[in-house]
Write a structure and sequence with these properties.
The protein is α+β, with helices and mostly antiparallel strands. The chain is built from 3 helices and 6 strands.
C-alpha cells in the first residue's frame, strides 16, 4: 500500500507538471514576458526561505523545478491551511494574494478530495500564480492531482489549472498523512465552510 501511494505521489508531481509544460496552449501570454510584471526566481527564493524558514538552497531547489515548468509568476499567495482525509478529504485555507503589479488581497480556499489518502496535517502554503490578468479571475475552482509525499526539505508542490490560469502550491507542514488524491480547490473572497 505504501509503495502504491508513493508511486502515485511521485507520478502526480513528475507527470502532471511536464504535461502542463508540453501543452502548446500553455505558455505564458506575451504581456507577462516583461520581468517588471513578474517575480524572478531570486526574489521568490528569498520569500520562500523567509516564509517556510528553510535554507536558501532548499527553496531554490524547489523553485527551480517550478520555474523550469512554468516560468516566472505574476503573483503569489502566502497562507496556511488544514486538511484531513480518510479516503474522502477536506482542505481549508486562507492567505494573501500579492501581485507583482501591486494589488494585495485576502483569499480563502476550500475543497474536497478523494483517493488513497488518510490522516491530517496543518501546512504553510506558498502558491505561485501564473497568467492571472485580473485578480477576480482567481475566484473559481482549480482541479489538481496531489501526492502527499514531500520532496525537498519537507516541501511538496502540485499544479492546479483552470482556464489559462495555473497555480503551483508549495506546502510544508506537520501531521501524519500518507497517500495521494485528486480533487479541486475553490478560491473565494469570503470564508465558507461547505467544501462544494
Amino acid at each position: 500500500m505504501r509503495i502504491l501511494a508513493a508511486t502515485i505521489a511521485a507520478l502526480s508531481v513528475f507527470l502532471v507538471g511536464p504535461a502542463f509544460a508540453q501543452d502548446p496552449q500553455y505558455g505564458q501570454p506575451s504581456e507577462y514576458s516583461d520581468p517588471v510584471d513578474t517575480y524572478s526566481q531570486d526574489e521568490l527564493t528569498d520569500a520562500v526561505t523567509d516564509f517556510f524558514g528553510v535554507t536558501a538552497e532548499a527553496a531554490a531547489s524547489m523553485l527551480e523545478r517550478v520555474f523550469s515548468d512554468l516560468g516566472r509568476p505574476v503573483g503569489y499567495i502566502a497562507g496556511e491551511e488544514v486538511s484531513g482525509a480518510i479516503g474522502f478529504g477536506l482542505r481549508y485555507g486562507e492567505g494573501y494574494l500579492t501581485m507583482k503589479s501591486g494589488p494585495r488581497e485576502k483569499v480563502y480556499w476550500r475543497g474536497p478530495s478523494v483517493g488513497w489518502d488518510a490522516g491530517g496535517n496543518a501546512s504553510r502554503v506558498f502558491v505561485l500564480v501564473y497568467n492571472l490578468n485580473d485578480t477576480a479571475q482567481l475566484f473559481q475552482r482549480f482541479p489538481g492531482v496531489e501526492g502527499t509525499a514531500y520532496l525537498v526539505a519537507g516541501m511538496g508542490v502540485n499544479y492546479q489549472r483552470a482556464d489559462d490560469i495555473t497555480l503551483a502550491p508549495i506546502r510544508s507542514g506537520v501531521g501524519l498523512r500518507a497517500g495521494a488524491n485528486v480533487g479541486y480547490l475553490a478560491y473565494t473572497r469570503r470564508r465558507a465552510w461547505l467544501p462544494f
